[in-house]
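2024-03-11 09:14:02 DEBUG pipeline.ingest accepted 1 chain
2024-03-11 09:14:02 DEBUG pipeline.ingest length=220
2024-03-11 09:14:03 DEBUG pipeline.predict start
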Amino acid sequence: MPKNKTVTKKTQVKMIKKEPTKAPKDLKKEVKIVKKDLEKTSKISKEEPKKEISTKTTVVSPIAEQPAVLLTKEGLKKIQDELDYLQTTKREEIAKKLQNAISYGDLSENAEYDEAKNEQAFVVMRIAELQQILEKAQIISAAHAHANVVELGSTVHLNNITFKRDEKYTIVGSTEADPLKGMISNESPVGKVLLSVPAGEKVKANTPRGVIEYKILKIE
């Protein structure tokens, strides 16, 4: 019988090249979105000129329904300033927060990322809300300056007969109303009963605190 030949097989070892870890597709997409947002923010003041709103005073009927958003000149400026801040400074700030949070890699348990996304959503909604207000904005007329009755834009000095004290309110649209600062809406219980009433007259307002009686002392 022929002798068994021992066959030696050379073991070939192949070097496996380790590829660098790739970022998840959704992470890459998010980074691109943030970068685009930063670029858009930096150009917004140049590419999107501010829409001019006519500040011509228009006599507004205090009784007729007004689809427009009624604002004083001061209220209009306040909204324009807030919109400008959100579209530029705030958006850039949030985009940088997102970019920083994304750099950590894992988005599944990233509190900074979640917080920045929630803040971004709020800002986007607020920008849309302010833009809608400006589209419908109507400046409250200054024609009440010599009027002898309460109108939108009037500052009214009152004597609160029920609680025995003097009060002062400016009648504005609901968007601009801030009771703590003495600015009440023409749609509020007190605002409604004051409209079209002359100085010296008494009115009664049905408020959450009950019926309150006022006497109009002076109209400015």
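2024-03-11 09:14:41 DEBUG pipeline.report Residues 4-24, 54-66 have pLDDT under 50 and may be disordered.
2024-03-11 09:14:41 DEBUG pipeline.predict end
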